[in-house]
Amino acid sequence: MFDSIIINSRVKEFYTVNFIDDLVKQITKIANEEDNVFVVDEKISKYFATELDCVFKKSRFIIIECKEENKTLEYSQELIRRLIELNIRKNNRLIVIGGGIAQDISCFIASILFRGLDWFFFPTTLLAQCDSCIGSKSSINFDQFKNLLGTFNPPSEIYIYPGFLNTLTENEIKSGIGEMLHYFLSESIEIAKEVSAQYEQILSNRTLLPYFIQHSLRIKKNIIQIDEFDTSIRHIFNYGHTFGHAIEAISQYKIQHGQAISIGMDLANFISMSRGMISEDVFFEMHNILNKNMPKFKFDQSNIEKYILALSKDKKNKGNKLGSILTSGPGKLSKVFLDFDDSLKNLILEYSLKFQN
Amino acid sequence: MFDSIIINSRVKEFYTVNFIDDLVKQITKIANEEDNVFVVDEKISKYFATELDCVFKKSRFIIIECKEENKTLEYSQELIRRLIELNIRKNNRLIVIGGGIAQDISCFIASILFRGLDWFFFPTTLLAQCDSCIGSKSSINFDQFKNLLGTFNPPSEIYIYPGFLNTLTENEIKSGIGEMLHYFLSESIEIAKEVSAQYEQILSNRTLLPYFIQHSLRIKKNIIQIDEFDTSIRHIFNYGHTFGHAIEAISQYKIQHGQAISIGMDLANFISMSRGMISEDVFFEMHNILNKNMPKFKFDQSNIEKYILALSKDKKNKGNKLGSILTSGPGKLSKVFLDFDDSLKNLILEYSLKFQN
Predict the structure, then answer these.
(1) Does residue B160 sit in the same domain as residue B280?
(2) pLDDT in tens, A168-192
(3) Which residues of B touch A230 (CB under 8 A)?
């Protein structure tokens, strides 16, 4: 398996990503320490009932229902009550097994209960393994506002077990690939090309994924070590995200995150080309990679106004300008503020006519 | 006025305590920056209506009702909604004017809204000026549990304006004096003796207080810079607090914090003497100082069981042992775990008979 990755942090000095191939061994070891309390995604608790048997037999644990509607203060309070019933103490540690939603809720609780609990994380989705497990963020929805609340609080140990990837649908894998492509293209074209060359094999053989996961984490690590709290250079990772989030929103989240940002990057590249930042050749070099991972989706007169409205609500905007990350070629990202005018709208429609499925 | 105090922090690199004598000038300067949003204790907003006029005229502000029952997630959510109505943004800063409760609630909100907002703090009580304004902690009650939730998130600037002290009752001043005595005795006997010598003057002339406030903050600074997250040496500041908290609890919080810990320290000293850690001389040297600040309160058969029960719930306990800070003399504190047995109970009753009013 791959070497551990150590990430320097302002919050925790450092924390470690470990790649493991024996889940039972690792879980058993942790379950043997009575200070640990497990927080397990309901789906994972069923899929991996055998592997988690030692947890359910001898450890304190709670099962959490991982859906977007539960990323709230109310659900967090419910879980805190269940942890208190388990007699949780300040010197206890949460062991979280699940995807991004399990991470968001548990990390938030670990940030505020007893002014902070130690926690370990076993990410179970490709998105969580290749991206969210590092970077310290938790996100909680508040009223109608997505991810309005949150904290920076990384786990002290992360265990990546590739076997979890077998539980995922093809769309979930594609979503993770989209997120990884965004990291790869923020550095260079090379690894994105490898993904493209092996795209079909990756979808059918998930043992190919850890190689890309560790590359993705390595690229993210280099930036978050400099800007953990997302105030400067880490903004480049909004590449594809501003345009992608708005696609997710107008699709009512039917289009998954990483697939939406595949379109988002392609659109950002198209706008970059229109501004003379990249040549047609460079645009197509990236388009041919991204296109493989793009879902069926079109901008047209029926949704363009809604899309512009969704973009206008992005929290990275300044005044009446759209804060977007554009590219001068792979590895050369920069922040540009775009006017919300007809030319932006027409550019998006032109992009769609030419390049969308 | 006194020199600024700079405190090194893991959360914020450093933050600064500034002593100011012109409140209007400072507030006006801050109110002129439109990124600032004020959070003002209702009582202070009335007492200092003239000084805060520039805030109420041209700044965004919310008024908060500072009572213990409002240190909850529910009230925090209500305030977050009011901040959203004021169109608060990630790059805005909260300017908090109030005592410890205003600090707890606002610091908590500043920790979780947008994953963290910058904030300034104008502490208005003696307790907040001499103690809580530094040290990074916020505390939120949860169900029946006091201060179960919280964060570490210091303000980036603290402004100590002694004029606020004129709004306080004598009991509130005594409460602050108790907290300061606890810092002084954790270092040496010298400054505690000065307090004792001038005790009556201090109560009648509050301009004498800033001298003691800056000494108190200096002592606290030296420890929190080493152990900001309260995992080791900062525990010495529980001196008098374990015994004091339980007095507050059984008095239904009629006895104020700093007065309760004046008794708490005296009791801890008495137990230290009974264990041969200090001589009778040293006990009396401290007792004669603490006694001036001790409220009317007695342990007897009517409350001793309740008191022991309250002590048994202290979160610093380990197993069935009471985690308490005892003294080998001024400046020489250490943690000792005491058995909950009849000898502890008898010792407390003996102390009360001999030394309580």
Answers:
(1) no
(2) 999 999 999 999 999 999 999 999 9
(3) 115
